[in-house]
Design goal:
It is a single chain. The strands form five sheets. A nine-stranded mixed beta sheet has the order 9-8-10-11-7-12-17-16-15, sandwiched between helices. Helix content is 37%, strand content 19%. A hairpin with a 2-residue loop joins β5 (27-30) and β6. It has helices at residues 46-68, 89-98, 104-115, 127-130, 139-161, 184-192, 210-222, 248-256, 292-296, 316-335, 338-357, 385-395, 399-412, 419-429, 483-487; strands spanning 2-5, 8-12, 18-20, 23-25, 27-30, 33-36, 72-78, 170-175, 199-203, 229-235, 261-267, 278-287, 298-302, 308-312, 377-380, 438-445, 449-457. α3 packs across α8 (248-256) and α13 packs across α14 (419-429). It has 508 residues and is an alpha+beta fold. InterPro entries: 3-ktacl-CoA_syn, ACP_syn_III_C, FAE1_typ3_polyketide_synth, Thiolase-like. It comes from Rehmannia glutinosa (Chinese foxglove). It is an enzyme of class 2 (transferase).
């Protein structure tokens, strides 16, 4: 198209072609307008689209799977035997006097051990002790002890949670000192008529740390199966493990261990999250069984006269400390805030530099990690007063922090693997546990083992549990053991002339 103007030669206008990444856009001149024909970008190959689609679904499945891998505690029930099973100061003296293998030296040792144990007068013992048959227990005595616990605690737990035994998918039972055929787990299945496809784990010989081992088993199952309910049953059989000899390292167990147990229902079902009490955040297990000293410090064996008992060696504190330190090294980075870890690392580095350049060779005090920066409550194993004192010193805990463990030891004694749940119940009964709080559990057991874990409180807890009836009287003003007042005269007796008549009766 030509356009003429005066004094200027005619000019021809031609549309310019435009290009994009995929090639030119052709232009066609038509009157005073220009039209364009766009080139369509080709779609990605079908294979690429399928791969992207599959990756998207995998990511969604991972998110869904994580929701089912959480481990929640729905509820738990600690066992409180009947009042006729309480070991009073007088009756404890009668049990000791019945053992004809003991002399004045053993009496003095037991008096010292009991007075310093931290155990009170309201702990419980098996029925056969009150019938005077601790020297000749039967298998039925052991089964009766377990049945009383099973029927009482498991029944209460099912009733309170409104969960039927047929809804249980996994059953984990740990009773260290009693192995029967069929197993105790089979006994529970038979009594409650559980499903044929229930997954069963029966643990023995795990000692006082068995509860967290059982939790770890449940946690592993939850990672591979959805919408699962698990029942954990933990206790200890004293009937068949009562020692009647005079070996000091073995008779000590009679002073510390008492009857007890706990049943726990756990789940990974997301819809039950709001009803749950606790959520498992982290769990670490430490086992020093490869070390001979650790392996032999807690062991069941026969004494020189053939009496079977549980030996507690003098090297037990050393073995426990080593396992404890190794366990803390692994779990601390997982549960403490980064700022506390950096603070500790900086102080440790400063101390090393100071020691290197100091002329005197001394240095600053060894830095200590403040576990309270990531933990609100400490649920400690009630292995004895010395055990609680040692943990408190190592973690710089206050009397408020260790009060639940001390009161549990005083009221229920060392109930082996179930003792942690009595400590937790004390915190709940005192209404200490609020939503979002972190609870640190730590336990020790033969092997030698140290296991620990961290729980998150899912809601404010009301405290209706085994402590409910008498929690207002704790802590008592005086924890003094009445044994010293009643039997302190033994310390002044002459070993050469001491004699207890067969008809001697302990005064009230």
């Amino acid at each position: 198209m030509s356009i003429s103007t005066k004094g200027k030669p005619p000019t021809v206008l031609r549309p310019r072609s435009k290009t994009i990444a995929n090639g030119p856009l052709r232009s066609v001149g038509h009157r005073n307008t220009v039209s364009y024909k766009r080139q369509i970008t080709p779609s990605p190959p079908l294979g690429h689209r399928l791969v992207s689609h599959e990756m998207f679904h995998r990511q969604i499945n991972r998110v869904i799977a994580r929701r089912h891998q959480n481990c929640y505690i729905l509820d738990y029930e600690c066992y409180k035997p009947t009042n006729d099973r309480k070991l009073s100061t007088k009756f404890s003296g009668e049990v000791i006097r019945r053992n004809k293998h003991l002399g004045i030296h053993e009496y003095k040792f037991l008096l010292k051990a009991i007075v310093s144990s931290g155990i009170g007068e309201e702990t419980y013992a098996p029925k056969m002790v009150f019938e005077g048959r601790e020297a000749s227990p039967t298998l039925e005595d052991g089964l009766l002890e377990m049945d009383e616990f099973f029927i009482d605690s498991i029944d209460k737990l099912f009733k309170r949670t409104n969960i039927s035994p047929s809804e249980i998918d996994v059953l984990v039972v740990n009773i260290s000192m009693m192995a029967t055929l069929p197993s105790l787990s089979s006994r529970i299945i038979n009594f409650y008529k559980m499903r044929e496809d229930v997954k069963v784990y029966n643990l023995t010989g795990m000692g006082c740390s068995a509860s967290l081992i059982s939790i770890n088993i449940v946690q592993s199952i939850f990672k591979s199966q959805k919408n699962v309910k698990a029942l954990l049953v933990t206790s200890e059989s004293l009937s068949l493990g009562w020692y009647t000899g005079n070996d000091r390292s073995m008779i000590l167990a009679n002073c510390l261990f008492r009857s007890g147990g706990c049943a726990v229902i756990l789940t990974n079902k997301p819809s039950l999250k709001d009803k749950s009490m606790f959520k498992l955040k982290c769990l670490v297990r430490t086992h020093h069984g490869a070390k001979e000293e650790s392996y032999n410090c807690c062991i069941q064996k026969e004494d020189e006269k053939g009496f079977i008992g549980f030996h507690l060696g003098k090297n037990l504190p050393k073995a426990a400390t080593r396992a404890f330190v190794d366990n803390l090294k692994e779990i601390a980075p997982k549960i403490l805030p980064l700022r506390e870890l950096l603070r500790f690392a900086a102080k440790l580095l400063f101390r090393k530099i100071h020691q290197k350049w100091s002329k005197s060779g001394g240095g600053a005090a060894r830095p200590v990690i403040n576990f309270k920066t990531g933990i609100d409550h400490f649920c400690l194993h009630t292995g004895g007063k010395a055990v609680i004192d040692a943990i408190a010193a190592n973690l710089s805990l206050s009397e408020y922090d260790v009060e639940p463990a001390r009161m549990t030891l005083h009221r229920f004694g060392n109930t082996s693997a179930s003792s942690l749940w009595y400590v937790l119940a004390y915190m709940e009964a005192k209404k200490r546990l609020k939503k979002g709080d972190k609870v640190f559990m730590i336990s020790f057991g033969a092997g030698f083992k140290c296991n620990s874990c961290l729980w998150e409180v899912m809601r404010d807890l009301e405290g209706r549990n085994v402590w409910e009836e008498f929690i207002d009287s704790y802590p008592p003003k005086n924890l003094a053991n009445p044994f010293l007042e009643k039997y302190g005269w033994i310390q002044d007796e002459d070993p050469d002339t001491f004699y207890v008549p067969d008809d001697y009766e302990i005064p009230d």
